[in-house]
Amino acid sequence: xxxxxxxxxxxxxxxxxxxxxxxxxxxxxxxxxxxxxxxxxxxxxxxxxxxxxxxxxxxxxxxxxxxxxxxxxxxxxxxxxxxxxxxxxxxxxxxxxxxxxxxxxxxxxxxxxxxxxxxxxxxxxxxxxxxxxxxxxxxxxxxxxxxxxxxxxxxxxxxxxxxxxxxxxxxxxxxxxxxxxxxxxxxxxxxxxxxxxxxxxxxxxxxxxxxxxxxxxxxxxxxxxxxxxxxxxxxxxxxxxxxxxxxxxxxxxxxxxxxxxxxxxxxxxxxxxxxxxxxxxxxxxxxxxxxxxxxxxxxxxxxxxxxxxxxxxxxxxxxxxxxxxxxxxxxxxxxxxxxxxxxxxxxxxxxxxxxxxxxxxxxxxxxxx
Length: 369
Fold this sequence. Notes:
- By secondary structure, the chain is of the alpha+beta class.
- It has one domain.
- It is 23% helix and 19% strand.
- The chain contains ten helices and nine strands.
- Strands 1, 2, 3, 4, 5, 6, 7, 8 and 9 form a nine-stranded antiparallel sheet that branches.
- The termini are far apart.
- 41% of the residues are buried.
C-alpha cells in the first residue's frame, strides 16, 4: 500500500511539444531555419480556369491555416484540434512556379524557368515543374503528415497535387545541435552553407525590386546507387568526395570547416585532393548556394534487382539560380567523380515569396500590385 502511494517519478520533459518557429517575419521560415527531421514537399498545379483572384483566395486561405498550425492552434473549421497540440518546429514555405505567374498575369523573375538540360540528366516528368510548391518541415513526422493533409484538403478547390517528395534527416536530439546532416552515402551534406545574417543577405535573399525579401528554390531529385557505392572501400569513397567520412574534414586535414589545400601533394607527388572530386569541382566555380537536402528511402522498384530506392530531395536556395546554381551544376555535370553513383531524376524551380506580417498573406505584394 505504501509503495502504491509513493510519489510517481516526474514525467520526462517533452521539448518538442511546444517548440515553434515564428511564422512571421521579413522572410519565410523553413529556409534559414535549421533542418527539421522530416520533409513533406508537395508540388501543386492550378486547376483549369484558375486566375489571379483564385490565387489570391488560395493564398489567403493557406496563409491563415499555416499561421495557426505553426503556432500550435487549430485552423478554422478543422475538427481535429488534438492534432495541432505539438507543433514540433513546424514550418511552411510557399513558392510560385512559372505557371502561376502566367495564370495570374504577373511578371515573373527572369531566372524563373527550367534548369537547362544536363548531359547526365535522366529526368522523369513525374518529378517535374509545378505551378506551386509547399515545403512542410517538422521535427515530428505525424504533425508534418497531418499538416500536409490539412493544407492539401484546404486547397482542393484551387489546386491538384502533382507529386509529393518526402524525406528525412537526423531526428532532433540524435546529433549535437548545429551538426551538419549526413546523406545515405554516409557523407556530411551541407558544409559550405551560409550561416550568418550577412551571408544570407549576400547569397540567398533577393535585396530589391518587386521580388525583394524572397529567394529562389531549385529542387533536384537525385537517385543514389547505394548498391554500387557500397562496393567501394572507405578510402575510395573519401577520394570521390574529397572529404573524410568520419568528420567531413578535407583530405588535407583539419576539421569539417577547414579550408582545403588543393596544392598539397602526397609522398608520390600526387594531389591529396583529386581535382575531379565532388568538393574540388563544386568549389572551382566560386558560386554560393544554401543546401537544404533531405534523404529519401523507398521500396525498390519491382524487377529492378536493386536492394533499395534511395537518394536525395536536394533543395538549393539562392538569389538567382542562373548566376549560382546552374553554373555549379554545369561544372559538376562535366566532371565529378561522384557522378558514377548519382543520377538526377527530377527538377523544378520556384520563387519563394517574402515572409508575412500578422495580417498579410503569401505573395500579397505581387498579387495586389
